Fold these 2 entries.
Entry 1:
Amino acid sequence: MNTTIIGSGVAAWTLARELRKAAPDHEIRLITADSGDFYSKPMLSNALASGKTPGTLVMTPAAKLAEQQNVELISQTTVTAIDRSAKVVRTATAEYPYDQLVLALGADTIKLPIEGSGAGDVLSVNDLTDYDTFRRELEDKKHVAVLGAGLIGCEFANDLLKAGIKATVYDLADRALARLLPEQASEFLQKKLAEQGVQWKLGRSVKRIEKIDGAYKLEDSKGEQETAELVLSAVGLVPRTKLAQDSGISSDRGVLVDEFGRTNDASIYALGDCAQYHGKYVLPYIMPVMQAARAIAQTLTGKETPIKFPAMPVTIKTPDCPAVVNPPLPHHEGTWEVMADDNGVKALFKAADGALLGMALLGEASKERQALSGQLPGVA
Ligand code: FAD
């Protein structure tokens, strides 16, 4: 039995490990567009201050991991097509047969429609190569404009500050982390980061970026101007679905998979940032990958196992304002109960019957993560 996995992020490597545990003799092939080196992607947004280089972020080199897991690794190779009737995947130079195929393709960064001579220089950081470019471009720079006040934008802003670089953060929403936090929690985080030097430019978009004398002049929708030496975009990610779509695999926001991680083709599975689990949820975080990989490995080796997601609170890596969030699911009905003081915010999203459905814990309150997590429902 050959299982071919496309990708080499945490989803691909975790699945390979789980599969190897479940089936010592299984043939596992991993085809990836990058080097295949294993690193912690969440570290990318808090690596500057600690002086991490792309090299020191690598936890296990690809060749070593491939040997440990007895995986055939085909790196620096992009899969260009899936021929489902012949059960082969195609690259520019070869085709590879599979019995089972797993898509662990990740997500692409969103590019904003911005005008001006500097628009093409906007950076985003979604892998080790991007981080390498970002680090090089940052040399001697003292002010970065960050586009996006979501989880990744706020983390980069805090990391830049810790590295001694000023950060100005833009967002169309009128508050930071608007999709994850209730209003008072956003205000608390904004205040804490502002005290350390973050400049917030919220409720606006950047319209134009002109490159002038090696710096960038940003003009926003409120008509204000700002000069920064580098512009980093962190406005979000979109699951990579094209390869699946082109071969007739159903996709919506992500590649659609059922409770077993299976697409509409019984031989093809998906997990990680590219997947839309249970036909509903795009869960672009590490913990869902672990749950999905364990279950899919069992199913691939003949023991059908549904993917179950427990509550999976996410730590926001803003050291100047420790925060843990577990937002309610879209279908949850309830209200936020918010307790806030100078030391923190404890926001609990509760149903009419008092059941805890979501939470946002900031500052001192983040220490209650453990105690409250057990009361949260899983993702179903
Ligand atoms: P990826 O790691 O993106 O891997 C995709 C792989 O597919 C890559 O190897 C790529 O080369 C390969 N690939 C794509 N297309 C092809 C093709 N056609 N042919 C061959 N190979 C292909 N999550 C948390 O839970 N907590 C955090 O604090 C956190 N912080 C984050 C900070 C940053 C800056 C970022 C960007 C993300 C963060 N996340 C965090 C999200 C988390 O890192 C991701 O959910 C996770 O890493 C996704 O793993 P993946 O394997 O699905 O995708």
Entry 2:
Amino acid sequence: MLFLGIDFGTSGARGIIINDNEEIITQVNHSFSNQNTNNLAKQWKDTLYLLLKEIPIDVRKEIKAISINGTSSTVLLCDSKGEPIEQPILYNEAKNVTILDSFQTIIPEHHLVKSSTSSLVKLLWWYHTKKIKPLAYFLHQADWLGFLLHGKLGISDYHNALKLGYDVENLCYPDWLKTLPINSVLPQVLPPGTPVETVNHDIVQRFNFPKHCRVCTGTTDSIAAFLASGAKHPGEAVTSLGSTLVLKLLSNTRIEDISSGIYSHRLGNLWLTGGASNTGGAVLKHFFRDEALEQLSQQININQPTTLDYYPLLKPGERFPINNPNLVPKLEPIPENKVEFLQGLLESIAKIEALGYEKLQALGATPVTQLYTAGGGAKNENWAKIRQHYLQVPVKISSQTEAAYGTALLAKRSQNN
Ligand code: ADP
């Protein structure tokens, strides 16, 4: 039996097919074309179908379940046939939060939805600009792409729906949300990876999927990337060393500190908590090319730490682990020796990472016992040793980091649902 995970990212889509042993059988990619940029939904639909066509037909015939992840808070408004009524609103497209003013007494203070990019603010913006018609459906990108395969409208998952205000603890929409005038367009929310329906007849005919192939609810891109690491026990964490430093920790307890950008997603009976710092690879990139990073890192004597104490940022302002919008970058003194300078930067980012996990633990999260690493900095072995020193836990490179792989795991685990 085979399982297909599809990741819709910012520049294109990727599909990964795994077998019962969670080994990758085939991977396919498709970049978004420059055509249809004024009709994003069509671009996604075309990309989805082209991606499915690229999977060898013999593989397609064996696929038992499919799941899709999209970018969090990328949303659509559709009519009763699933046709988008409006251009989708992308994950990073901020809407003016003054829209919330008229609902100030209804929406709880310090709620996650009170951000200019939350799904709820986008939905209220559509309401405010009178775009919501009777019988409309509000969906996230992953929900809509799933609909194209199974044909059922109005279904979402509780990862995508968190920033819509769904109560993931009690598995319902909170009463305050139900009193908002957008109540009628809210999707039904299911656990991620729940089988919704078998693939619809047209898709079976067109792509030769087996008739019993099931389409499951999806997740968001960053949770899919976490799942890809294989982390599944409380205390397991994934640090992403990309342009920014992103921490995710699986915890028995749910923790929130919205002003610091800390919140928790539900993962079965556990909580996936974390935060994002503005430090990270973008600062390294500012000073060093990738090849230089690799060569100079190999020359670091990790047994001889520097006394340099930086807070590497490209511009003032930090949210996590220190919540200070005016925090000034600290990058002085710069030693003449480049290896020493790089070592100072890597040590300082490692200290911020350790401080981040300490902060999550201080708020009540399960202590870190095992750390996986993803992103461009993951391959740096000396950095892993430096980080292990500050973090005092084993640091491993994630064997898989692709979101599509994590989503394929979700499709495979749907067999148990
Ligand atoms: P993103 O997807 O967030 O843009 P990536 O995961 O692709 O980022 O990682 C890119 C970052 O990785 C760059 O900022 C770069 O400085 C950093 N990077 C690349 N090679 C190394 C290395 N050998 N050691 C440390 N960092 C590295």
